[in-house]
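Q: My labmate handed me this sequence with no annotations at all. I'd like to see what the chain might look like in three dimensions before we decide whether it's worth expressing. Could you predict it?
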Amino acid sequence: YCLLPYWYTLFHYAHTTGMPPVRPLWVEFPKEEGTFTEDNQYMIGGALLACPVVEPGAQTVKVLLPGSAEIWYDICSAKAYKGGRSLSLPVNLDTVPVFQRGGSVVCRSTGSGKCTADYQELPLNVTVALNSQGSADGDLYLDDGHSFEYRDRKAFCLRRFNLLSGRLLCRPATGEGRFDCETVVQSVTIMGVKNKPSRVNVHVSGADTISASFEFLETCCMLTLNNLNLRVAMDWEIQIN
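A: Here is what I predict for the chain of 241 residues:
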């Protein structure tokens, strides 16, 4: 349920481009023949790789991480793995190995609800997975979730998150769409940060620059920014120094 914002964005692109939300590995890695026969793993969009446990009583599972130039992050531990290799991971009844691809941005709901309408009211966490060049980007699609206003009146919002050279931008991904939603980004998690920053500044269009509180976990190279309360529909940027 926390991934509903990401799924909704994927279905927007399925509607507009025909690209399916769930894809075999070879769709994202067509030049790697090893992905052609891989039936036990799949991609959720271009950012997440899932490897469900398909054998009864299995205690380990073999995971293929494609792309020799790729970096893959375990979404639970934030541990980074280089691509172009296979891993053997311990599993149990509660385990489904999922990895986020370096260079991607995935939006998640924070908190809990009883139905999808509840989740539309929840704030977001933006999870950034850096690639080997230290950059990442991804989109978020929003509309009212129940009507055809997105089609008839262009009442939708498509935003792009882009991180490059320590600067995370939230900007329109298209010139179309007018949906002034109240959804906010409450936190940002960045995986693959090499060094602890000295400060983090947040600038919202039309407002003063403020300093943001952050936590840095050196063991897994993860930076977390909390209590941001940044509206998705507005332009803003975060500078990491």
